[in-house]
Amino acid sequence: AAAGFAGGAHAAEGLEPNSWEEITSYNNYYEFGTGKDDPARYAGDLTIAPWTVKIDGLVDRPGNYTFEDIMSKMTLEERIYRFRCVEAWSMVVPWTGFELADLLGLAGVQSGARYVAFETVLRPEEMPGVSRRVLDWPYVEGLRLDEAMNPLTIMATGIYGRDIPRQNGAPLRLVVPWKYGFKSIKSVVRISVVDSEPPTAWNKSNPSEYGFYSNVNPQVDHPRWSQATEREIGGGLFASRKPTLMFNGYEDEVAGLYEGMDLSRNF
Amino acid sequence: MNDGVSGASAPRLVRMRDGLNGGLRRVPAWALYFLAPLPALYLLWQGSTGGLGVEPISALEHALGELALQLLIAGLYITPLRRFLGINLMRFRRAVGLIAFFYVFLHLLTWLVLDVQVPALIWQDIVKRPYITVGMGAFALLVPLALTSNNLSIRRLGGKRWRQLHRLVYGAALLGGLHFVMLVKGFQIEPLLYMGAIIVLLVLRLPSPQRLFARSA
Question: What is the pLDDT of residue A9?
Answer without folding.
Answer: 45
